[in-house]
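Problem statement: downstream parser choked on a complex file, so we are re-checking the raw output for the flavin-adenine dinucleotide run. The parser issue turned out to be on our end (a line-ending mismatch), but while we're here, posting the original submission so the record is complete.
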Amino acid sequence: MHHTQVVVVGAGYAGVAAANRIAREGAAHVTVVNPRDEFVERIRLHQHAARTESAVRPLRSVLRPEVALHVGTATRVAGDGVELADGGDLAADRVVHAVGSGAPRSLPGALSVQHLPGATALRDRLDAAAPGTPVTVVGGGLTGIETAAEIAEGRPHLVVRLVASTLAGGLSDAGRDVLRRALAALGVEVREGERVDHVGEGITVDSTSFTVPDLARASGLAVDEAGRLRVDESLRSVQVPTIVAAGDAAATTARWSCQAALPLGIAAATTVLAELRGQEPPAASVGFTATCVSLGRRRGLVQPSELDDTPRGRVLGGRTAALVKEQICRGTVWLARHPSPLFTRAGDLPLVPAWEAA
Ligand SMILES: Cc1cc2nc3c(=O)[nH]c(=O)nc-3n(C[C@H](O)[C@H](O)[C@H](O)COP(=O)(O)OP(=O)(O)OC[C@H]3O[C@@H](n4cnc5c(N)ncnc54)[C@H](O)[C@@H]3O)c2cc1C
């Protein structure tokens, strides 16, 4: 008898949540393909670089026992399976495309905390740096801010500056004030309205943008400008509907974030499960709750948001916010292990971009 096969490509937040949710229903045999047998908590990679927290744990420890793990790299995704770099392939009735995002290529020679090898290389450079070495973090988004703060706190003998064309553009003015005060207290020099176009003296960290692995484009699938898989409202590839995308690798309107990747992973699983039952899947939906920023281990920022991610209400700073953020980081791993739709907030954010709806 043919046993239904689901292959999940990429074991980040979205892929692990999708795999566990599909496997729990017992509707299919689920195999996860990931280049390493470790789960990388990407939201802690700046902490890994600063040696303030670990960001890596065994992948098996976050997967349900019935999920099979294939350590390898997918080189092609198709509607009926996946080709692997080791020459093998895995046949599938449904493929979940969840390869996430990675390092920018905009600043040659700079290091990056966007993926584990980059964060480890940065950690080694920081370990070897003499007192007074300048560390320039480029990019005023949340990753750049968290990275500058973490290094300044963890390595107080280094001189950390943050260069940002805009500082935390998505936050309220009150939120930005909390950030500026915390960065100043940590001794981070913030240069707003400036750009960096080459790597200078000391250590440079590029946090300007995310990029997506080339896998979907190289597989000949319809992608957006960033290389994310173009999907319908149930996260199915517009071209090959047996491929379902989730997380940063799916072309949705949700901010590239762990906060969206987890519910998108659960939504991708809901689509796969509905189709395996012969039902029409519901439209996927994501609702944001808050933007939570860690500023070293002792400070943080919690900015509540509307479901569509626009900031609202009063911001929380200081040690309480640091504790809230730490609990959220722990909660993300728990939710990936126990992915129930009860833990996602359904928003009214239209997930399919305008070009697709038109
Ligand atoms: C330092 C830092 C701090 C962050 N902080 C926050 C935060 O506070 N809140 C928040 O919401 N977001 C945060 N983010 C963003 C968040 O980490 C990402 O948006 C999130 O990880 C996306 O999840 P994902 O499951 O889509 O992909 P990822 O977590 O990137 O996982 C993708 C997986 O796919 C694997 N993969 C890639 N290519 C292949 C292939 N060809 N074959 C097989 N496997 C493959 C990768 O190795 C990886 O394991 C932060 C990011 C960084 C770098």
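For whoever reads this later: The pocket of flavin-adenine dinucleotide is lined by residues 9-15, 33-35, 40, 42-43, 45-46, 73-74, 98-101, 113-114, 143, 146, 213, 215, 247-249, 256-259, 261 (CB under 6 Å).
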